[in-house]
Structure formats: C-alpha cells, structure tokens
Amino acid sequence: MPPRKILLGIDGTEGAGRAAHWAADLASAIGARVLVAHVIARSWEIELSALQLDTGEIVRRARAALYGPWTQPLRDASVEYDADLVHGDPAADLLHLAEQRNVDLIVIGGTHHSGLRGAILGGTAHRIVNHSLTPVVVVPLEPRHPPRTNVPIPG
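^ that's the sequence the OP posted. Answer follows.
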C-alpha cells in the first residue's frame, strides 16, 4: 500500500530543498498528504541568546520560509500539506511527530558533512534512520565528484 501521510523534515538547506521536490513529486503521484516540519534546535537558540542575538527575528524568518519558499514545491504540485514549526531536538522531534501523526514515510534531505563538522552536526539523518519505526527516505545531494565506477564488491 502506498504511503498516505508523509513527514517532510525541512531546514532550508540544499538537501532539504531536494527532499521537498522529491516528496512533492511522490505525494502528487500517489495522492498523499504531507506534514512539513522545521525543528529549531533549542541548543542553537540558547547559544544565540548567550551571544545576545535576537532569536525572535531568526524564528520569524524561519516561519516565513516554512510557509513560503520551503513549501513552494508542494504548492506547485498541488499537494495538500500542513506545516509545523517546532522547538527542540531535530531528530527526536521529527521521530516524535512521525509517531504522533501516524505517518507512513519520513523524507529528509542528505548533506555533505566531513571531518569535525560531520562528527558533530551530521547526526540528525543518522539518528532518524537508525531509530525510526517508520520507513525513511534520505534524498541525496548532487554528488560533489563523479561516482566511482570501479568500487570493489566484497566477497
């Protein structure tokens, strides 16, 4: 049975944009409804507040983007959707939303993290994929380098 409810995690990155287009195409083709969620990390808000930066303005911009350009692919594809802005832990709250809203599929965008940044920040998709009880699609970015054609296969 095809998914009827799709959760799309979105954050304004290139990967999230690709995921939005992918989810819009899928939802349009099968008549699914999409829940779009952007989770603002509480740890990030605390860090900005400590630097005495106005987190309210940043939240307002995220909300405008969530209801504007980030969800434009869904409107372009005439897909029915709801959008939520959540404050918390991105992976944990997306997993919680998936369970709470009884979605059939989670769609998120891939990223290109490397080195220390990857070790510290690259965990959201990893945590979702490894802890979800719902199927997950990670939409990849365009490759930075041409794919290798001579990858050895073990065995």
